[in-house]
Amino acid sequence: MTMHPVYTQPDDYAVPGAQVLVFATREAMAREAARRIAEACRAAVAQRGVAALMLAGGSTPRRTYELLAQEADMPWADILVLYGDERMVPPDDPASNAHMAHQTLLSRVPIPADNVLRIAGESGDAAEAAAQYDAALRGVAQERGLDATQGVPVLDVVLLGMGDDGHTASLFPYSTALDERARLVVPALAPPGAAVSQRVTVTLPLCAAARMVVFLATGPHKAAIVKEMVTQPAEAARRYPAAQVVSGGDLLWLLAEVDGGAGEGALP
Ligand code: 6PG
Asked: What is the mean pLDDT of residues 194-201?
């Protein structure tokens, strides 16, 4: 019997152009996220012989990655894994997004090393690392025959998180990186108090070309930001980089524990 995901689509989360699913628990959200990512990757490989999956950093995606590693019948030999952003630290540093993805997913699946395109956080020079990643991303897209929209590689799945200030990847509020339309990857500076200040991040055009963009966000504060995208879309887009993200295909927001605990969002 197919288990239907335990989620609702409340009207006060009806973000224009997006589908917003509210889950009672993080676990339910992670299960649905892993299922949809796996489904999209299998379909991409079946239709075009390759899938391009861009991973998010931070802590929210951890459980999704652990569950994705358990998905059966995944064509890992034909799945390219990219990163939406990275902190300028070595890959074995606990603050590294590549470190988290390796621990929870990539060390658990038979993915060829050449299929994983890591941002060189160890290089010590964010501008250089960004330029290298931009070139490498475009190169692998060409080599592996990814489609392109106006010269921008079309990724199959772009996974994103959102910070409490509405940042996504390492696109921070009021950053000039938000206006970047030519480069796909740029250096970034996180605000004081962030885990690591020197960063590398993808830019909005790469998300806008993707077939599916999936946000994962938990807790009442982030839920309130999503509600603002409904009630004050222009102000939300000005204040929150995540609100500026569009997709070339599906835009999906998966929320959990919007009231602070397992409660609202659970189907009866
Ligand atoms: C990063 C992430 C960042 C993250 C948000 C949410 O490098 O920090 O790419 O955009 O998704 O900060 O982080 P949490 O999931 O830990 O709340």
From this structure: 95
